User: Fold these one by one.
Assistant:
Number 1:
Amino acid sequence: MKLILLSGGSGKRLWPLSNDARSKQFLRILDGPGGLKESMVERVWRQLGETGLQRSSYIAAGKAQEEMIRVHAGLSVPLIIEPERRDTFPAIALSAVYLYSVAGVSLDEVVTILPVDPYVEDAFFHKITELEQVIHDSGCDMALMGVKPTFPSEKYGYIVPETGEPKLIINAAGDVTEAEASDAETGDARSYQLVRRFTEKPREEAAAELMQRGALWNCGVFAFKLGYLINLLIEKRIPIQYDELVNQYSTLVKTSFDYEVVERAKQVAVLPFDGCWKDLGTWNTLTEEMGTAELGEHITTELATDTHVINELGIPITILGIKNAIIAASPDGILVSDKASSPRIKEVLKNRDKRPMYEERRWGYYIVLDYLKYPDGSEVMTKRVCLDKGKNFSYHYHNNRCEVWTILSGEGEMMLDDQLRTVKAGDIINIPLGSRHCLLARTPMEMIEVMRGTQLVEEESVRLEADWKDIMQYCMI
Amino acid sequence: MKLILLSGGSGKRLWPLSNDARSKQFLRILDGPGGLKESMVERVWRQLGETGLQRSSYIAAGKAQEEMIRVHAGLSVPLIIEPERRDTFPAIALSAVYLYSVAGVSLDEVVTILPVDPYVEDAFFHKITELEQVIHDSGCDMALMGVKPTFPSEKYGYIVPETGEPKLIINAAGDVTEAEASDAETGDARSYQLVRRFTEKPREEAAAELMQRGALWNCGVFAFKLGYLINLLIEKRIPIQYDELVNQYSTLVKTSFDYEVVERAKQVAVLPFDGCWKDLGTWNTLTEEMGTAELGEHITTELATDTHVINELGIPITILGIKNAIIAASPDGILVSDKASSPRIKEVLKNRDKRPMYEERRWGYYIVLDYLKYPDGSEVMTKRVCLDKGKNFSYHYHNNRCEVWTILSGEGEMMLDDQLRTVKAGDIINIPLGSRHCLLARTPMEMIEVMRGTQLVEEESVRLEADWKDIMQYCMI
């Protein structure tokens, strides 16, 4: 069986810690082994390792997340990069085509799709391995995992199984018996049910009724034979060769896999999971799984009951007598919310599109310290940039800005317009508009970068296709 | 009559907006005329102007506040500068000696002391002018203003008048009659009472009883004949020549004027004031007088009832469903407090001594954007510095740090080690350790300053005794 982990999300729901460059799955705020904090991606990738599934797993993600996923799941993580964000159906189609035409996976092999960030116990992943057998045993097009609800949530989709009539439980030999139906109720590992229908986000009373009828939460885990989806793509005249599909990716319909595939499948099985599963998608659910109420430095709390504080800023936060609240501060902003209201953050911020003020990158990270826009349209952005040892910026230049770097610590090699030089703490480097430059850190380096120009928020630098070794050789000549 | 306004305060109670360099009286958060925001100092100084008292007024303040007071009350405000902070008795003694030996004020003239920051209506200042007559009429050593309490506060000191026996009301001719006692009760402008005793911060029940007995709040307004205090200083062998007292200032006992003088005076009169008076010393009292619930940029509030937000940071604040709270953010820190708990801030922060991250100065202001301390003890501080048009830094050098300036906007003249040059937006200026330098802004200027060295937080620059004109002339030669 192959596993495809979908890494999505624009990150508004956990603002201001998440942003367009750092979705919630990359926040290091969960308690990991050895007292270290880990992100959702780190946690799931670790669990996949512990349950022996990591070597069969791929992560599908947008281009913008590539660097972050490598930081959190390792440089060698197998990635399927979506050319652009287009919802789950295109992402899963691309993944299937990749497995088929690039990785050479057999059409008979079962593929399981899951989100990259469920908060679950290891048993969840053991259960996932059973989906393969469910597909083979049931002869269904598709097998889903259904989480046994613990309360009548209005946030989730429900999978309604066939009930009120004899349960269609099929044993390994293919016999259908009523006797074995009781296995499903006693929680036998191989028990599954057929799906009657799906219900999206019901009101609380309806959800309570669904629970009584044995409905399960849809946790976004779908298994199918690779051949099933490839055939479906052929029917839809979607290319099944990877390069071709990448080229046509922008023409795929923006729709969910649930809607486009699952709900239209002839017969779907569901495997109930009766264990810990949480969607840590909002501050109130996430703080339940934070081991400590305070994360970050310079936090003083007094009479603050059940209040969680996360401080990623360098300045102190003092909390006096605030109950049941979440206070989160990052270079992107400050959130002060009572826990019950915190799910509204996405809606409140839906029209705000601000540049991320903090980004983790392949080479390290940067924080925006200050941003100014003058009446004449010229802009200034001041950043602190941290480059890890042995890492380098790409060779690039800017059409719209000049930069001044003051090196604070460390040393490295810099190339500026074909001139190689050593730079170290105390050096001031003036990079005029259009100058090609890059930097390799021999030791960890920090610098203050003052950018002056226009469109500092929107415009990308122009990357030159050359890697560090080429440049070094070029300069050595 | 002369007025001495005492400007005190270290500024912890309105943290993080107030700091050691910007006490609460300098926060521009009150609604002023013409829709502009004004500080407590600006408001009181304006009211003194409107009531005709400004030209008889002096402000006594510590050296650290000199620049700020000139920014808020005008460059020509008469100042009495305390060489160091030593409580109210030394400050008032210095002020009296200044009036006597420098300003040549007659020993028969009445001097009235008041805080620089009471939040009052103009009637308060009209009432103050009556203190002169009370001193003359009553023959008392001292006349105080007493505010009629509106609730049994535990925070204030109470002035308990003589009651339960015939009131000693003395008319202009010096006759004591019971008939005129009724004037005191009908609120006649010239009515005053004699003081029986003082009670500091009583418990609520005791305060309620004091109110019933006609006790008044001590609002820190004391009037006396200059000669009375000068004689007292002579008795205490305290110098009555200004220069001499300045030299011996550090030997004066650190004690309050209430304790050292008022409570030991033979006979004290009190003039009741039955009008609006507020001590805006804590967030919960101050927010009552803020016209708007939101001050600053980038604030989003939803379901936040009776919550006040002040944002001096460049990053957005979002508030969801927080009631009756004060949220204040500045480069010094972030406070999230329910209003009832907000007076505790001073106590909670009492051991925290952090460098102010924002300072208004004679020449403009600066904001600390970033501060780092490396394991080897070296430090980096990054500031944005704004210099007003026509203003200049003093000529100075640093023994412990070098600086890199990136000029962002404007232009000016700079002197660096006896070399004069013009600097403008885009210039990068490297100021090595020990280099003498100053800058004069021809237009408003902004720059990013990166300081590298040690003791960046504590150490002052070394100021050279030269003003800009001298330097220009020196360089022109």
Number 2:
Amino acid sequence: MDLPEDLSRSGAAAAAKRKVEEDANSGPATKRSSNSSSEGVENNITAVTDEKKSIVQTTFQTLDGFKVDSILSNSADFKRIVVEGTVGDQKAVIILDKKPFTEDILSDLFSKKSELVHTFQNDIYGSYDCVLEPKLSAVKTTIVHPATKQHIDKYRIQPFYLVQETPEIYKSVTLPYLQSSSFDIQWVHNILAHKKEADRIIFEDPDPKTGFILLPDLKWDGETINNLYLVAIVHEKGIKSLRDLTAEHIPLLQKVLTEGSEAIQKKYGLTKSQLRVYIHYQPSYYHLHIHFTALSFNAPGISTEKSHLVSTVIGNIGLSPTYYQDSTLPFTVKKGDALCEKLLENGYKF
Amino acid sequence: MDLPEDLSRSGAAAAAKRKVEEDANSGPATKRSSNSSSEGVENNITAVTDEKKSIVQTTFQTLDGFKVDSILSNSADFKRIVVEGTVGDQKAVIILDKKPFTEDILSDLFSKKSELVHTFQNDIYGSYDCVLEPKLSAVKTTIVHPATKQHIDKYRIQPFYLVQETPEIYKSVTLPYLQSSSFDIQWVHNILAHKKEADRIIFEDPDPKTGFILLPDLKWDGETINNLYLVAIVHEKGIKSLRDLTAEHIPLLQKVLTEGSEAIQKKYGLTKSQLRVYIHYQPSYYHLHIHFTALSFNAPGISTEKSHLVSTVIGNIGLSPTYYQDSTLPFTVKKGDALCEKLLENGYKF
């Protein structure tokens, strides 16, 4: 949870990010020029004009000239730091990500150029600092510049809190909040109507009550089996979340689990026991969808306070048909989120 | 799940590892000597004699001379690779971990020495490769040498599978397996009897039926609140796991949740809503213990197929006193593990 992922598919920020990722390999519509907008940043930047938008982009040559204003997040697990900085008179967000090791560098890595400094020895365990060749230890760097307050806030890690949502809190706070918010799920309806992403569908059961469409999640490259991630979107409209599931939905859930797993095994080779099939609460959009990830994948949002295995959900509804209406359910909120504010207004104590 | 952690505190390998960690700052009981056991590894090693064990330890000066035999694991998330190698005629395990960014290096990092190579630009998003000063990009390296097959197997990532454990499978496979295995939990009894680690106890409720001891988990440094990790060990002996919990244990679980959270708030400042309080199934040792981690910490083993929030456990037992005897419970097994073999022998289909 050091590195919260934006799971939303609506939301302007997410859409912008998605666009960046999609365009990552298509090359920039930019052209080098000799203009320079440097102020107090000597010998560091090259100005580039974006012809389409007539704005001057800046290409930096070193990290010199950035004044560090604050650390927005720092993940010791994932080896990533995000910094808010100023360069000249403009704000920037700088994201530094250490790169994974790849197999193709091993022959360069196991060489005389990898110097070891011994730090301690205990029995057969030797501990060292190893300095690699510079080319083997480059850091993936993203510079958002110029950055607005919105960009900076998007990358700033916020404290978050566990909520124990009783049925009363759901009825008096969460449900009214959901009903008053205008969550745009037109893109879901486009998929269900085959208007968009039809070529991405892996499997469909067309039954309006118990059917669903299975397709790769946007975060997945569609190829790497270790990181397999698909999502099943149910045809029935009106099931907002886990809270709405009752005994009548057992056939739907059973179908998703069985047919979805079979379709994945057929296409990608992973068996049912190599899959994690689960529902988020709270979800990122309020139309029932079920996540399928490779069990080997440390996917975002699989922690116990957020994810509910479909097999367990079926078991719980089987035990008590109104389990998800009667139970206290956990979920997390970020400080400052609208739902967090609503809970505070209604006297919830964090 | 790319990086399975060894959560076990019993087991010889884990004990050895723990010893290494405990002794990390106390300095090795070794002495440099001019002996050399190098074979085919020129100018690379320094032999060191461990006086207590009369064995010759090797200190390596570079990564040259290691023949890479196989990759035991490679985590793109955590930027860690573990390699099985041969040096001379002996086996070794080499663990390379990229280091987290720390705040104290930022002034060195944002300097002319951090060279940027522009890879692409899309609107305000610039993507670069950044080559840092060598001292800023050292890699934490652990060399296990000489390594036995047992060491190599310990670090080898194995496929793992989700098991849906019905009550029948628990009774016919899991329980007999547990009862026939000699899990050594003397160290747990030492803690409960105040014979060991007494100075590490944060809180104790001495009640023999509903009491527990709360102390920092060995994996925690005891200081960094973002990674806070404590464990509550119950005084009552004989509760092997989640499967044994019934309505009679609600007072115990409620106490752990309330008193444990209060003790943590008092000592470390995190409130109840900033904590994740959960039980593992399967646990790493079969004496009931409850994990407390900072909600912000992406702790190992918090995924939905492994961890059960105590609040949800209390709710489930409240709904049905024998919920954990009657339900199908998920857990994961690694290929080759004893329990995995037992399940296969008994006809379980993965």
